[in-house]
Amino acid sequence: MTSERTPRADYHELFDAAGRPLAVLVIARLDDHPIGAELHVAADLPDAQVAAAQRQAEALLREQSDPAPPLEIVRRNLDEPTDAPAAAVKGDETSAAHPPREQRSAPHRLPAWLPILMIGLGILLAAWTFADIARGRDSQNAAREGVLSMTDPRTVNADEENALAAAAATVTPSPTPAPSPSPEMTPVREDSYCFWPGDTLSEVAYNADITLEELLAVNPGAEAKAGTTIRLPKGSTLPADWEAPRPQADALEDLPFGVSGYYLGRDNRTKRVALSFDVGFVEGNEERMAMLAERGIRGTFFVLGGAVENHPEMITQILDYGHELGNHSYTHDNFLWMTADEIQWELDFTEELTQAAYPGATTKPLFRAPFGAIDDEVIAVSNQAGYQIIGWTIDSRDWTEEINAEQLYDRVVAHICPGAIIAFHDVNEANGPALPRIIDYLAVNGYEFVTVSEILGE
Asked: Is the pLDDT of residue 205 over 80?
């Protein structure tokens, strides 16, 4: 006996930053589960306002369903143009989707076309929903389970390697992976490769079984610079399947080391990435830790000692959600301006505060220098204190005021490659909404999430 399924449509009016009507979001549901959504905007609505409405709609959909249903933007020719002014795109997209109480309650004139549009959409959406039922559509079946590898790094002969393995093995509860997003929601792009020191463009083309001309056609002006990303044309042999031997890195010291530290994983052919975060104390950080754990992802959090001193609970939060710790100094001052004794104190005091906050916890052996600023003295003192300096393959640049969520997302996904270490910071207006999209992109494109210790230790 087949149970009856109940279709319905929900309507959500979206507002600009001034609290005035901007667009209408229509969500189709089966048994209260969202199966699709349309964002209806006026045909003459400026692109900036459409983009603002789209961000609001996507945020609302993510709140209601994981994975969120696909969103289609519909421009409609209407007798009366919308009277909504240009939206304030820059700023917190979440607050634009949910204006402050005083904005939501402020009187505003609804566009004359809105009630007519909503009635018409109800009729159209009902027909669309029942047609989908007849075809047996159920978007839940498209969701794939995310997979997290908890394999500890293999042991090699260097003392630092043993320390990395120990750090990777200090795992608290293993999070339950959340369903991965549907490929229909997130783009699948060309595969990519990050240059290992000594690689050449010709070698990469040969290993990928393509011509140099084909490689340069999708990477105009490319140079074989260690740690940079190159895209592989469709039809290329994937790096994981290349016949050439993988780079030899039998000890940590054999890994690529640049101006900010170790910046690329030991295996730059298998689709694995490490999400790393340089953090002080921001209210949204714990929510981010929980979100990562719910998706089955372990991140690496480089903590500031000054923040730990004032908020020792942050260490408990990081470890209880199953994440990894690293040292990011006490003051976040530039180490290039410090004496050896001052550098030593920054590292030691942050470690001392971490142990006091959570007995048995340690930031060793991972250290990321503030601003990525290092020289021979910083390296020597850090190594003597029991740390290895960690850089990054991809700087999200979420620390700049100029970048917004869309630009941040585009920047990160454009440089993704196997073995990459991605650097983020405290939750902010740009990376807050961008990070879940980046994770969705990586999952759909076949990447596995590991910690910094794991990506350097295997």
From this structure: yes
